[in-house]
Amino acid sequence: MSLTKQDIANTLVKKTELTQTQALALTNQFFDQIIETLKTGEEIKLSSFGNFVVREKTSRPGRNPKTGEEVMISARKVVTFKAGPKLKLATQLGKK
Q1: How far is 8 from 29, CA to CA, in rounded Å?
Q2: Is pLDDT above 90 for 1?
């Protein structure tokens, strides 16, 4: 199962006095703010949840798995996420 923005908005409606439209707008604004902040290269630190960081990856040699041909993988920026201690603990408790 995956969690969608609509699922988050539905939960906000159930737990607050927001309307469906307000909850969906709030959810979209939250994620839009994360995107805008990451676009500027800034880190995002969500207490008790984790950190989003934009990293620069340098170009490197690679291989096309289909043909075996060597290719150069271009330099690029990637977003990484590191879970905070409470999130790590919560996910570990769910394992059997």
Answers
A1: 12
A2: no
Main-chain dihedrals φ then ψ at residue 15, nearest 5 degrees: -100, -5
Give Cα separations from 23 to 20, 47, 53, 69 (angstroms): 5, 22, 27, 49
Give the Cα separation of 96 and 94 in Å (integer): 7
What is the pTM assigned to this prediction?
A: 0.78
Q: Which residues of 50-87 are buried (b: 16+ CB within 10 A; e: fewer)?
A: bebbbeeeeeeeeeeeeeeeeeeeeeeeeeeeeeeeee
DSSP for residue 74: P
Alpha-carbon distance of 2 to 17, in angstroms, equals: 25
Residue 63 three-state SS? strand
How many CA within 13 A on the CB side of residue 93? Answer: 6
pLDDT at residue 72 tops 80: yes
Pairing of strands 44-46, 60-63: unpaired
